[in-house]
Specification:
By secondary structure, this protein is an alpha/beta fold. It is built from three helices and eight strands, in the order βββαβββββαα. It has an eight-stranded mixed sheet, with helices on both faces.
């Protein structure tokens, strides 16, 4: 069984599926800034989320809930067990590649979720960009800029000059 590795700094460390990256310090405001990024190995939440939450609990303390995008996962449980503690799972249909982890009543941590099956280079670049100080890009923009996801098609054909 592979375990989730929490990397506080991605410099020079190979990032593989199952890795979560955390910022050294959380931001005072959560607007537009990611506190971490997670690259699950697959879309089987039962095999991926407990491992991540166990690693986060060791670092952050007991967690109250996790908010996930329903379209990203094969099953949608209402809770998961982390050791002897139950963590509530809230579901949304936003399709925004984010995860919100709540500790206590109001302490929220926003994570970028890298789609399973992403190539290592783009996954590493997206994770690094998400936790970079001063980053205000959305998850969609980060995934597009780093090549995790192709450019959004608007139906308009653009041609390059020349």
């Amino acid at each position: 069984m592979n375990t989730v590795r929490l990397l506080a700094d991605t410099c020079g460390v190979p990032v593989v599926p199952g890795t979560a990256v955390l910022r050294w310090e959380t931001t005072a405001t959560r607007t537009g800034a990611f506190d971490g990024a997670w690259w699950p190995r697959n879309r089987d939440l039962a095999s991926q989320l407990p491992e991540l939450l166990d690693a986060l609990t060791a670092r952050l303390g007991p967690l109250a809930r996790v908010g996930l995008d329903a379209s990203d996962w094969e099953e949608r449980p209402g809770h998961v067990h982390v050791g002897d503690h139950m963590v509530r799972v809230d579901w949304s249909a936003v399709s925004d590649n984010t995860m919100i982890v709540t500790r206590g009543e109001q302490d929220h941590f926003l994570f970028l979720v890298i789609p399973p099956g992403t190539r290592p280079g783009p996954a590493h670049a997206a994770m690094e960009m998400a936790v970079r100080d001063g980053n205000a890009l959305s998850a969609e923009r980060i995934l597009t800029v780093t090549g995790v996801r192709g450019p959004v098609r608007t139906g308009t054909l653009h041609t390059a000059p020349g």
